[in-house]
Amino acid sequence: MRNENNLNRYFADEFNSEEKIEFLMMVENNEELKEEFIKKQNFLVLIDWVSSEYENKQEYVQQKLREFMYKMNETKNK
Fold first, then answer.
1. Where on the phi/psi map is residue 13: left (φ > 0), alpha (ψ -120 to 50), or beta?
2. CA dist 73 to 13, 30, 46, 64, 77, Å?
């Protein structure tokens, strides 16, 4: 639970510089936390990607989502 809270705080930009460094070191040294960090980061990038800029481009967004999911599966299966 603490790691989830720290992930949320990190991505909400609630850490000061020292806390960010400490947290990123924790991420680097903990495989489970690193995996969750990457998942959350990818999810947030995807949300940003499907922002209002693409509101009227549903086909384009769906194609990009399929490409993203395909690449995620390829990475997972390596």
1. left
2. 29, 22, 15, 14, 6
pLDDT (tens digit per residue) in 8-44: 899 888 999 999 999 999 999 999 999 999 988 888 7
Q: Report how far residue 29's alpha carbon sits from residue 9's, in angstroms, rounded to the nearest whole number.
A: 19
Q: How far is CA 31 from CA 19, 55, 58, 76, in A?
A: 19, 36, 35, 14
Q: State both tokens at 9.
A: 């705080």
* Residue 15 tokens, joined: 């850490």
pTM for the model stands at 0.61
Residue 2 has a pLDDT of: 79
With helix as H, strand as E and coil as C, how does 31-70 read? HHHHHHHHHHHHHHHHHHHCCHHHCCCHHHHHHHHHHHHH
